[in-house]
Amino acid sequence: MPDTALSPALHPPAPTTRQAAAAPPTALTLEERLTLVDMEMTARLNEAAVAHAVNTAHIPTGPVDLGDVVTVPLTPTLQPPAAYPTPVAALLQRAHHRLLTGGWCSGALVDEDGARCMLGAIRAEARGDSGLETDAASVLLDAIRRTFGDDVDSVPSFNDAHGSARTPLRMVDQAAGLADARGL
Question: Please, which pLDDT band fits residue 77 given cuts at 50, 70 and 90?
Fold first, then answer.
């Protein structure tokens, strides 16, 4: 007859004291168990916070010199992207960059602060070449009409209809891509 006293399947080992203490009582509801876990985690976090404060108390903290931390220019310089190979596209790209760096305005070619409207930026970047200026304004008007319909009368009226530079700048950039696609 086999000895059943040694068979682990019939007689599992008795739990140790630690296992018995760690096992949650089965009579607790879910909310009660969650409350117990919350209390235990809070105690652990408080203990870790005290340990962190003790471990870092000796570290000297003096004033920080921003020159040691900041390694980039405080005012970023906007660099123009690589120029388009075609003259009208390159002109529109330069006008876009001028609007980004010099500012945009409405109601005038150039305002008292030096900001320019769309046509003012094209005129400044054309540097007196009226044919190039005319071609660039024509492509810009075509790009505007492609997006906003044929109701747009002119580049200045479109420029003045906007209260911020976002849409006019986007249209000058799109016109540069259009001129490049057309080989202008």
Answer: low
What pTM does this model have? 0.56
User: In this structure, which amino acid lies at residue 87?
Assistant: P
The DSSP line for 20-37 is HHHSPPTT--HHHHHHHH
d(CA 129, CA 91) in angstroms, rounded, equals 11
Residue 183 near residue 86 (C-beta atoms within 8 A): yes
Distance CA 172, CA 121 (A): 10
d(CA 151, CA 148): 8
DSSP β-bridge partners for residue 104: 116
126 Cα distance to chain centroid: 34
Q: Which residues pair with 110 in a beta bridge?
A: 116
